[in-house]
Amino acid sequence: MKTVYDSVVARDPNQPEFHQAVEEVLDSLGPVIEAHPEYLPVVKAMVEAERIIQFRVAWYDDDGNLQVNRGFRIQMNSAIGPYKGGLRFHPSVNQSILKFLAFEQVFKNSLTQLPMGGGKGGSDFDPKGKSDNEVMRFCQAFMMELWRHIGANTDVPAGDIGVGGREIGYLFGMYKKLQNEFTGILTGKGLAYGGSLIRPQATGYGLVYFAREMLATTGKSFDGATVSISGSGNVAQFACEKVLHLGGKPVTLSDSSGWIHDPAGIDPEKLAWIMDLKNNRRGRISEYAENFDGITYTKSEPEPASNGLWGVNVDIALPCATQNEINAQEAEMLVANAVIAVVEGANMPCTPEAVEVFQNHGVLFAPGKASNAGGVATSGLEMSQNSLRLSWTSEEVDGRLDAIMVNIHKQAYETAEKYGMPGNYVAGANIAGFLKIAEAMTAQGMV
After folding, report:
1. Is 118 helix (H, G, I), strand (E, B) or coil?
2. Whole-angstrom Cα distance, residue 347 to residue 369?
3. Fewer CB within 10 A of the end CB, N or C, for the chain?
4. Do the domains 49-183 and 202-362 sit in the same CATH topology, yes or no?
């Protein structure tokens, strides 16, 4: 496996995020290749994207000035279905980050047991500070380049950081105009034009459903537990909501400017205020401390300073912000406070060193490819509803989501035990996701 990893680094030496994602998976697959040596060619093929598309996105701002951004779509693996994965609009977007996300998406989608391959895309465009008209013009220009490479049976993008309901609407409208058809080409759509109930809540809800199953294996639950959550976007908001439903007490949230600690707990009324702040007024989390009593607000420090959010004494940690937000030092802070579970809501928010700390100290740890799969699972359910030309109720979609997350937990837990690594959800998720794809790729002649 080291030979495969070395070849990845040699081919693309300046892609650290992608290297990290590949290394984490390859480290888990040794026992599988030992039992199934015929799958080694699959490993060599899986680390190479089936297709990488990069394009120029030219658009005009409100002052009439031409702006130029880069657009990408990484079509990683289609062995078990059309490429499926989000679009991210953020200044940090580059090929390495999107390849890491697409690679993770392949395994995540496999774990859902739905017919979806893996892909990811986006642009270095920053929606923050842009007017609605500027965002619309950018999205239309972006789709004018992307539309020829996607389709309901080819590649079905969704949202991600910087791409919410507003952006999906503009993207869908331009695709419909260019393709001259109304089809389920994007997920995360508005309910008025083919979206699914529970889709906005799905990643956060699914995260908590997975965490609930993990805790149950040790006789614990969210009832009465204090919970740290990072981020304050879609995933963090609805993880917070579901934690409250299950009797837990969320005490932290954050954004790029800093983080808040509310010892009394973020109750439903406070959460509603936060949702209005972030979704409608597009404000900063610091305003929470200005509006409520007893709140500590800490401004973000430049890297590589540790994030004090993870020093708050809690039972459960749900990192929901971005990749590599918890390093080894911060993991030690959580361990020192006797955290019982760390469950990833973002994509790869824990560094490999942090994961090692958690595993060495017996902390329940779940990788994002398993624990945050609820979003793409419900995107798959949206695709099914679009194909059937019908809509399911909130209760039906939520029930299906819950069942999918229970099954993902079951796969990861039982696969880890089968391969002699009980309790290692990282290995269990990687191996379970890999085996389905390996079987499909082998049957198809690895094309």
Report:
1. strand
2. 7
3. C
4. yes
| Residue at token pair 């993902």 | 408
Query: So where are the chain's domains?
Result: 49-183, 202-362
Superfamily of domain 49-183: Leucine Dehydrogenase, chain A, domain 1 (3.40.50.10860)
DSSP designation for 50: S
Written as one string, the DSSP assignment of 66-94 is EEEEEEEEEEEE-SSSSEEEEEEE-TT--
Quote the tokens at residue 42: 């699959």
Question: Would you give the DSSP letter of residue 12?
Answer: S
Catalytic residues: 120
Amino acid 307: pLDDT:
77
Blockwise average pLDDT, block size 10, the chain, 447 residues: 92 95 94 93 96 98 98 98 97 97 96 96 96 98 98 95 94 97 94 94 97 98 98 96 98 95 98 95 94 94 74 97 93 97 95 96 96 95 94 96 98 96 96 96 89
- Tell me the C-alpha distance between 79 and 442, whole Å: 9
Residue-level pLDDT at 303: 62
The count of residues in the chain is 447
How many whole angstroms separate alpha carbon 387 and alpha carbon 409? 28
CA-nearest of 184, 188, 105, 118 to 367 is 105
Using alpha carbons, select from 32, 89, 162, 103 the residue that is nearest to residue 368. Answer: 103
State the pLDDT at residue 446.
82
Q: How many helices (H) and strands (E) does the chain have?
A: 17, 12
What whole-number distance in Å separates Cα of residue 275 and Cα of residue 164? 14
Does the reported pTM lie above 0.85?
yes
* Helix residue ranges, H only, 257-373: 268-279, 286-291, 328-336, 352-360, 368-371
Q: Strand, helix or coil at 162?
A: coil
**pLDDT reported for residue 18:** 97
- State residue 87 phi and psi, 5-degree precision: -110, 130
